[in-house]
Amino acid sequence: MTRRQPFRTPGPIALLLLALLAGCGGEKGYPDRPIMLICPWSAGGGTDTVSRKVAALLEQELGVPVNVVNATGGSGVTGHTRGALAVPDGYTMTMITVELNMLHWRGLTNIGPDDFRPVMLLNRDAAALFVREDAPWKSLGELHEYVAAHPRALKASGTAQGGIWHVSLAGWLDAEGMRADDIIWIPINGAGPSLDALMSSGVDLVCCSLPEAAALMEAGRVRCLGVMAEERIADFPDVPTFREQGSDWAMGGWRGLALPRGVPEERAERLTAAVDRVIHSEDYLEFMEHSGFNVSPAPPDQFREVMEQFDRQMGQILTGEAFQSVRRTRYGPMIFPTVVFLLMAVILLVLVVRGGLRRAEDAPAIDRRGLVRMGMVPGFVMAYLLLVETAGYVVTAAVLLSALMVGLRVRWPVALGTAAVLVPITYQVFAVLLRVPLPWGWLGW
Amino acid sequence: MIDPTIVEAAGQVLLDPVVWLAVISAAVYGVFVGAVPGLTATMAMALLVPVTYWLPPLPALAAVVTMVACAIFAGDIPTILLRIPGTPASAAYADIGSGLSARGKADLALVTALVSSVAGGLIGAAVLIVLGSQLAQVGTLFSPSEHFWLYVLGLSCAVVVSRDAPGRGALAVLFGLLVSTVGLSAVHAQSRFTLGNPELYQGIGFIPAMIGLFGVSEVLKNLITLEVGPEGGTEGIPPAGSNRPIRSLPLGIVRLMRRPLAVLRSSAIGSLIGMLPGAGADVASWVSLGVSRRSGHDPRTPDDEAALDRLGDATTANSSALAGAWIPALILGIPGDSVTAIVIGVLMMKDLRPGPEIFEKQPIIVYGLYTIFLLANLVLLPIGLAAIKAGGLVLRVPKRILMPVILLFCVLGAFAINGSGFDVGVMLAFGLIGFVLERRGVPLGPVVLGIILGGPLEERLIQVLTASDGSPWAFVDRWPARVLAGAWVVLLVLGLARPRRRSGGGRGEPVGSGNSSRLSS
């Protein structure tokens, strides 16, 4: 308001120029920039494979890049949380999985199905039970008898403690009137390593989906005792269901696309329509069939119903008394850190007493100027983190890179030149070629 | 003698221009991905998948195999030139490699790494071809207790390798293990040390930590000593050598030929470890380095020569680990690492189901794959030389320009892995930690290994304890576990007893954080 006139004009002009240069004069309609698809599981897994296929097809459908980002870790907490808390502008989508129904019951996150606006249910994988080929049990009934007669004699695995396959198995035991921990669960991360353990007699049973064990089943090394589905799975017609063998238990995982809650309705609908076309394309169906994934799409309303039904079921299992006893393992989460910490303390003590931690002789002394130069590094990184979301990668990186170089007494034309060449190249390579979601920012590069 | 299908498969691979195109573009892509820390082979693989939809099976496989082989070598380039490991598999020899570079032997070190990688890759491929089916059975012997010992063995190698300072090496490993416990524990899915911060649930990623420990701390170290000259001229860059890598090539090959047994030993270690799920090229480097260090060098060998030999052994092992990972994938349909997990997905998409029958049903694919493995490693040689040449140019850039650029790449690399700003913060924190540790003479490589193996080690420990209801005998109740435990004891006795005697009273003497003093002591 009291700003002087001469400072006022360049601002708008520069902005106008920028807008012209970037060619983004206002809302041209959704979507007009890259969409990020968050996958809460690591690259290479089933969820990732489906995510990448859907992303590749959506990209053709929508005409903008759709980048898959693997936000992994924390049993799915990380990815689901990031997806739910993303800005609801329709440019962030999440491939949500059944863990969304489980994590909040286990107190690991506050995020639940209500934080998402469902777009499309893509597939459902029923749980199945596998034993080694030489195992004495030929059917579910025989296994049932054995477990009832010898509680806590068998060991099973398939995923981490409290994962979907664990819940599936514990839920079956519970439904059959046994205790959920009558079969000891050995937490092994992932179906692949669990099947390894089955082969090496580390465990007696593995609970996972059918495609995951298909190769070993075809090779005649494992036998499937049954699948926890309502009816037989098309790709595996020889595998009997639990229902056929006298148990009403059905359980499994699901995957689907969702947006954070609060996305403008017309955008959500535009996306849903695009996804709908994608999942009915021949390309997609062929891919899913070859990869062994089951295809059972459902539109948003039904997807929500599925989630709600799972949520109730999971709530019953996970908060039930039977499962609570399973959750308390004797070998708790603090054993390992304690052992490591104690060992470290001993070694640290020995080193300090013997003077082994003195400054290395050839480490250069730090003078004041050196300290200032060093301080530029955290300065650079923190300024980058602060600015990049608003200003975008290109502007932030160019400004900071030249500033740091000038700070190190590089002549400024050299510094500006280097930044002007390098930053666009890195953007092209990382964001365009390698699909790293670098922030878009003012320039809209 | 020669099966006609083998000839046909080889012909299909070698005479197909699409295969050659795929191999060469994948090689260039692999070199780039490997050389930039933070871009991992797994991520590069995931990006390659949509491309493989359009390709027939053999070119698709060719692209994958070549990309990974080139990436693992290219990781050595920034490791040796800048002391920033491009891939975790190179962290084991960051000190050795950059020490050589600091003494003007960058060319020789890089060419040694290249030649050893090619040899390791070829021998690894030979192992896959000849012994694959038999070795796949070894994998099925590994229950959680064997894995436990394998991880302990890998970690102990990192301690043993920290010459003259096993105490500090152990401190580094334990620090890494402790860092790995932050976040939601894999076994119990309960949060530890997260201070209620959801970002910390995913734990501290080893890639951002590695970039910080090596990359950022190196930038910090360089900025301290940066002379502020009157002009913006060149200063303080280690002599890059002649930058004529091709001239060092005969020397590198001669070095390899001189030690056939060591090459075979390193390849064997690499193949075996690569084959086991949950252990890959990174563990293979460390174990090979640990064994190489113990296997009685002639004390009269000059230090640089010994360093080059050890560098060669480690690079041989990590390259042959790559083919090893295909053994269980191809034969049992169980992936040996995340790359082969994606490969299995690609194969299934093309209606090829890996498993024992693939040999009968799809012999062309299997023999074609074997040919591709040999081809990929041969292509690595010229592409690798070109990459070394290009890498050498980096050292001509004045430090005051180079350091800011490296810092930008560190930020990009840390961000790229998960697309999260939090990881960039982790990178900065570990940069400062690495800087302090380094000045106190604590080696950084073992910290990275600790972070990588902490999760799996804990998982196996808890699994064994749960299965046996707490009996410690469960760790040694099977013969493969006993063999590994025995190997561990031998390693500790040999590794920790000898250097003390050798270096006499020099225990308390500070050992250089830098590379030169450690190697020439």
Automatic annotation (TrEMBL), chain A:
Matches recorded under PANTHER family: BLR1237 PROTEIN, TRICARBOXYLATE-BINDING PROTEIN
Q: Which family does the similarity line name?
A: Belongs to the UPF0065 (bug) family.
InterPro entries in the record: BUG, Bug_dom1, DUF1468
**The DUF1468 domain covers which part of the protein?**
327-439
> Which UniProt keyword terms apply here?
Membrane, Transmembrane, Transmembrane helix
Q: What's the name of the protein? A: Tripartite tricarboxylate transporter substrate binding protein
Q: Which SUPFAM superfamilies match?
A: Periplasmic binding protein-like II
